[in-house]
Amino acid sequence: MKSFRLSDIAKEIDGVLYGQDIEVKGVASLKSAKEGDITFLFVSSYLEEAVKSPASAFVVIEGLQVSGKSYIVVKNGSLAQAKLLKLFYPEEEKHASLSDKSTISKTAVIQDKVTVMDFAFIGENTTVGEGTVVYPFVYIGNNVKIGRNVKILPHVVLMDDTEVGDNVILYPGSVIGSDGFGYAFDGVQYVKIPQVGKVVIEDNVEIGANTTIDRAAMDETRVAAGTKIDNQVMVGHNVNIGKNCVFAAQVGIAGSCNIGNYVVMGGKVGLKDHINIGDGVQIGGMSGVINDVEKGKKIVGIPAISYIKWLKVQSIIEKLPELKKELDKLSNLVKKEEHK
Amino acid sequence: MKSFRLSDIAKEIDGVLYGQDIEVKGVASLKSAKEGDITFLFVSSYLEEAVKSPASAFVVIEGLQVSGKSYIVVKNGSLAQAKLLKLFYPEEEKHASLSDKSTISKTAVIQDKVTVMDFAFIGENTTVGEGTVVYPFVYIGNNVKIGRNVKILPHVVLMDDTEVGDNVILYPGSVIGSDGFGYAFDGVQYVKIPQVGKVVIEDNVEIGANTTIDRAAMDETRVAAGTKIDNQVMVGHNVNIGKNCVFAAQVGIAGSCNIGNYVVMGGKVGLKDHINIGDGVQIGGMSGVINDVEKGKKIVGIPAISYIKWLKVQSIIEKLPELKKELDKLSNLVKKEEHK
Amino acid sequence: MKSFRLSDIAKEIDGVLYGQDIEVKGVASLKSAKEGDITFLFVSSYLEEAVKSPASAFVVIEGLQVSGKSYIVVKNGSLAQAKLLKLFYPEEEKHASLSDKSTISKTAVIQDKVTVMDFAFIGENTTVGEGTVVYPFVYIGNNVKIGRNVKILPHVVLMDDTEVGDNVILYPGSVIGSDGFGYAFDGVQYVKIPQVGKVVIEDNVEIGANTTIDRAAMDETRVAAGTKIDNQVMVGHNVNIGKNCVFAAQVGIAGSCNIGNYVVMGGKVGLKDHINIGDGVQIGGMSGVINDVEKGKKIVGIPAISYIKWLKVQSIIEKLPELKKELDKLSNLVKKEEHK
């Protein structure tokens, strides 16, 4: 690990340095930081811990300070953390090379500076853009288009016709372009409806480990630029996901949903098929969405309702035993009254 | 893509042609269809869009028509769609061959016209039936029996002793025959109970991407003929699933459940262990089933209750704040009355 | 399969033999057992079936007996079953060997008696302990430390820096050490926060098929000794899981949760991030946990509340339609009274 002057770090992370401009040799969490390290203080409740820490310097958010130590004040803590970690842990450069122990179809077009590691498979008429890295056990089918600087981690599957933009990261075990779940019932049994559409993943998207994104029945399933999807998420056929969305783990989105930009979903959220979700909607973890949601709304519950309403309803649900007692008491009183 | 006469298409999809018997060059969705294409109109709300479409012909369901265009009337829209798409997108024929870059055990029995692609692994005493295709990175263990015309897509894992029928499709990343989750607690720690049963997948079954079906503790876990299982579904040890069931994504079925024929489960449904589900039961998405369900019932909720009852209960839950106000008001009135 | 004397079996499984000391040739479930087999009777409701069974001997728990047959009485049925099955189905010995068709980095340290099968990949500076078996299509990154007698089944992914203890079993398709889901929002888009921590899996842990355990942002994600995790479970970054926990399938644990020892979670349980769960807590299937839970508590529901309270609340929820009627009736009566 390299060392950096605090003044240089401050410049890099858009912060203002207070205290001595010393050199730090590493970055670590507050609980693990040693002398010579820079660490983070974003919540005042950890102030005491920070003061006791052997760390030599701190990144703090506006309003906080660590007296007696050097600290850099920033507006956006997470962003500063991202930049600082990138400084100390730069992306490892791969020596571009195409392994003899992989299979690369003769009709595949592999651009400059591509790395294909052992035991990768690249099919017919597939294009791989400059700087892309293909890890072992990656399966890329036929007619796949992959952009530049894409990271395709071990065991990723890209089925035929999939399109992937630039700077995408596909985490291990994700499956893109498997058949959508579509069957016709003929009165006796289910007959497979051929799934002849494709999946399009735009620039700067990330797809989590063991997540599955199905190809469209016809046309396309799309994940627009900048959207980040966590592990074990399921995206059905013909779903259209907007830009800069964030979906936590184990979310499930049924076929033909149409999701706006900047939509946030907590873990395990489920969407019925053909649901429309407006821009900026926030859906609480474990919610089940069965109706369209207007832009900007915050919803939660199974079935999901507005967050404000859910809070009210939920507070009463937990008091139902008391309510029932009250009702029974009233009922008795009134009946007594009646019999007078 | 080939072109077809509408009269031939009508015959193929069991429909009646109205209008000119022209030739169409492609099939596409309503929103993407170009001149020369045939497309679909199954819902009257899209009629206006259909009339404006440049498509040259339509498949419509009974009761609909597209004046001024050729159209084929069918009874079962989805089934017609399945057949029409199959006509335009016939299953790609693989040139049966066994890759030198795969590992096929000497004791494995590989029948005629089998395709084993690069980087596939086939273990001892395993049988692979005629016409079956094994994609890259498929792991097939020992003593596995695989039927005819099975499609085993990339990264599928078939552990020892698994049996797979004819015309089965195993989607990428599915894991069949991993150990069931069984432990004995010895007072201090959990001791693994060896899982010595197997998994049997019958004819015409499809298993979705990254779905897991565990081997039985003893005896077998079974998925009967014609059942279709979506992505990321979990089937525990010793579960018995009937014929022609349809389970949507992220369903979880705990050990030893017994599920009838023609059972439908929405996404993310969970079943407690040892539950019996009768034929034809329908379970709404995200339901949690903790009791046996009689045949033909429609249930929903956590815990799941009859759909009719759930509708009633749910409509009241959302009005709980108003109910509480009413109760409080009554309570005050009655108390006032008391004090008179 | 070998045969064993009942007296030897009784010794092995800590039981007391009643009846003749015969030899049995196999172990089977009650419904499948044939003459010559030993089987199990742990529930009195199966007594009749047991009496009719052709099985030659039984393992029964205290309080049960099968008259006219030999039977071994044990205190802990599951534990006896585990031991008996291990006797009849001993772990297959692998002939330690390193396949030429695998890739083992020159800087990897492979200890004695290790098996590396075809198409496995082992990265730089990685250590694999004695007796460990690496199946086909396993990806092991750089700087990974793997203990002794570990079973790494097909398609497992161990990303860089992961540490795995002794006697661990990693089931097919599990992904350990993929990046945590951490992004900073810069006002326009999400910027990846480098995930520079690691995953530590302690001794005797088992990780289910297609389960994902993410590396920490900084520091570590840890699964302590003896914990058993089922299939399709998601463990977020910086989660700390105690000893001897049992998590059923499809559980999801968001980042930075801190979970005690002997915690049991049913299927599909979800935990919000930064939740603390005390020792011995039991969480019912499909629960959503949004608050810390004290040790020893039994909770259930979305959001999860105490099991006792949930039973009360739930019994009233199902009677809400009747309650509403009662309330309406009262309301009418009181209003009539008012107008008198």
Short description:
The structure is a homotrimer of 340-residue chains. Chain A is an alpha/beta fold and 340 residues long.
- Note the beta-strand portion of chain A: 25-35%
The largest interface is: A-B, 57 and 63 residues
Strand order of the largest sheet of chain A: 10-13-16-19-24-27-30-33-36-38-39
Task: State the end-to-end distance of chain A.
Answer: 88 Å
Mean pLDDT of chain A, rounded to whole units?
96
Envelope shape of chain A: flat
User: Major sheet of chain A, described briefly?
Assistant: 11 strands, mixed
Structural class of chain A: alpha/beta
Helix share, percent of chain A: 10-25%
In total, how many beta strands of chain A? 39
Counted by DSSP, the helix tally of chain A is 5
Oligomer: homotrimer
Main features:
homotrimer, 340 residues, alpha/beta, eleven-stranded mixed beta sheet, ten-stranded parallel beta sheet, 39 strands, 16% helix
Record the SSE blueprint.
The structure is a homotrimer of 340-residue chains.
Chain A: E1 4-5, H1 6-12, E2 16-18, E3 23-24, E4 26-27, E5 37-41, H2 47-52, E6 57-61, E7 70-74, H3 77-88, E8 103-104, E9 109-110, E10 115-116, E11 121-122, E12 127-128, E13 133-134, E14 139-140, E15 145-146, E16 151-152, E17 157-158, E18 163-164, E19 169-170, E20 175-178, E21 183-185, E22 190-192, E23 198-201, E24 206-207, E25 212-214, E26 220-223, E27 228-229, E28 234-235, E29 240-241, E30 246-247, E31 252-253, E32 258-259, E33 264-265, E34 270-271, E35 276-277, E36 282-283, E37 288-289, E38 298-300, E39 305-306, H4 307-317, H5 320-339
Parallel strand pairs in A: 4-5, 5-6, 6-7, 8-11, 9-12, 10-13, 11-14, 12-15, 13-16, 14-17, 15-18, 16-19, 17-20, 18-23, 19-24, 20-25, 23-26, 24-27, 25-28, 26-29, 27-30, 28-31, 29-32, 30-33, 31-34, 32-35, 33-36, 34-37, 36-38
Antiparallel strand pairs in A: 1-3, 2-7, 21-22, 38-39
